[in-house]
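ok posting inputs for the adenosine-5'-triphosphate job
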Amino acid sequence: MLIFATSDKGGTGRSVTSCNVAFRSSLDNREVCYLDFDFGSPTAGAIFQVAGAASGTRNGGLHSYLDGRTSQPERIDIWSSSDRQSLRQRPPGAGQLVLFPGDHGGSEFPNTPEMNKRCADLFLRLDEEFDIVIVDLSAGRSYATDMVLAATAMPSLRKVLTRWLIFHRWTNQHVGAAAGLVYDEGGILATGEERGHDRQELLDALRLVRTAVINPDAEELSPLRPAQIAFLRECNSRLTDLASSRKVGITQVIASIPLDPLLQWREQLISDNDLYERKIANVETVEAFEKLAKDIVDPVAWEVV
Ligand SMILES: Nc1ncnc2c1ncn2[C@@H]1O[C@H](COP(=O)(O)OP(=O)(O)OP(=O)(O)O)[C@@H](O)[C@H]1O
Ligand SMILES: [Mg+2]
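and the output
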């Protein structure tokens, strides 16, 4: 299965959430790979804590592959290459967790038909090898998004199961922007149609992920003043109305990831060590990652959201 992770705005939590979902999915016995298609800022290596690839690789990554300078983009096995001690041993039962980084110093580039074809070939190969292929796309109406829409419209990829996750924060601006990226001119549905996709099929394959969400009724907010809690409740209710009026409401949402103090301060995987030994992350956050990892591959959860 191919999973495309995108967002209209930057800094939505797209990469950190996707990396953690990849990690949880591989702990759940799936073979997982993660492709850094954020071409202008290839920093997924930093989240997986692979020092040599923190800002892309110098050994021929996805940029080099797509423009034909290498036939095999570099692949990094996270279980053996992460600098984090707590990730260095692949737990029994865990599947592969492989990062395909972009090139160090790589930037955005306009796509050509040859690149789109190379992209489709890579997706096809990886879909055969892995259960889950997560592709972290550049934000907004990007060349990367256009490239994968062109690639997945090719006959060779038509039968491959594909899903889209649109990430956004739980604010007015982000809700509007996410809806715009899906439905407006130049957005995913319109560009997809231009590239040969069926609009309704694409829409059925697409769900929203809300990130860093504060629950106004959470017990930990009880130290807030009553006026602050009342204000948060009111915002939450207005946002809920706005999201449904823009067709990114609850029936389109596949996950809501709580705000986590650890992630607020550091872009990283939350390991079981962070959770149970050091107790520096919230259980609810990891449960939300685990649930999303399960729901994306569960046809029933995907349909009935
Ligand atoms: N659930 C969360 N709670 C608190 N902070 C979070 C959460 N998820 C992500 N963050 C933080 O938000 C910031 C942006 O996240 P991230 O880099 O994943 O976003 P992005 O959409 O991939 O951004 P970019 O467009 O720059 O690639 C990071 O500092 C990250 O650690
Ligand atoms: Mg990112």
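notes: The two ends are 19 Å apart (CA to CA). The chain has one domain: 2-216+252-303.
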